[in-house]
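Good morning C.,

I know you're traveling, so I'll keep this short. The sequence:
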Amino acid sequence: MPAALAPVLPSRYAHSGTPVGTLDALGPLELPAPGAGIRIKSDTLPGLESVSPGDEDSVWLHDALLGPHSADIVRYLSLARSTGGPVLDLGSGAGRLAVPFARHGFAVQAVDRDGPALERLESWARRIGPQVAELIVTTRADLTELRLDGDYRLALLAGAMVSAVPPRARPRLLREIASHLGAGGALALDYTAHQVPGLIAEPQRTWAFQVPRFDGIDEWVVARQVFDLRAMSERITYYSARTGKLSTERVVLTTDKWIVDGEHLAAELHSAGLHIEGRRRQRIDERTESVLLVCRTDD
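The tokens, ready to paste straight into the viewer:
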């Protein structure tokens, strides 16, 4: 992880129960007592990847949160080479996967609910050249209401996007995807798997980090992650202070997600006509791991 993204050590703060020194401009932002959730180390910031930019300035935060997940591009490209295209990128954002796929010659349909993110994707593709831009079709749609009209060899729910889909809507989404995968096609998705005892022991977690920016703005963020086991939901709130030469701007962004139960997800995939062909696990910390699934249509 880049040094700028490393969680800030507690020594950077005042004593527990006082505002964060670096983020005084945010107002009375209280940190928990020692041992109550300040994260010292992390290879991957937790579940922050699906937040949409609230405005143009939030793009820096959005890109920083996606940075630790960039290694998955290599894995997904390798899978695409075995399946061929076209590729369906669901929850594409600003093209983190779609543009590199098009650069490698794959036709891509990029679907996202955030219009400005799709505009950034299209602008990035045009800057590279028409040979890339012509391979990408963008569609603005919410995944809970997705209606497809093409056939694909590979569908992606990358960056833990499956956890942004409400459980009640997930079976229909998976059926829709499966019905538009060609013979030998695959769905690849990843999600964060939490151990229930870990969630019970630590239902609230706090992270602090600096956002790498190159526009003269100094931005610090405290992210608070709250789990609700009864609702199987997760909320992350980002308290950001952006300091320029003349003033400091305070911004609060929130994203709501769902805790994914691996057994329930496997049953939903099976009901949609998909079977899990491969599973890859990567440990995040002692209570959390990232799970990548590759699913094929039932013949």
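Safe travels,
E.
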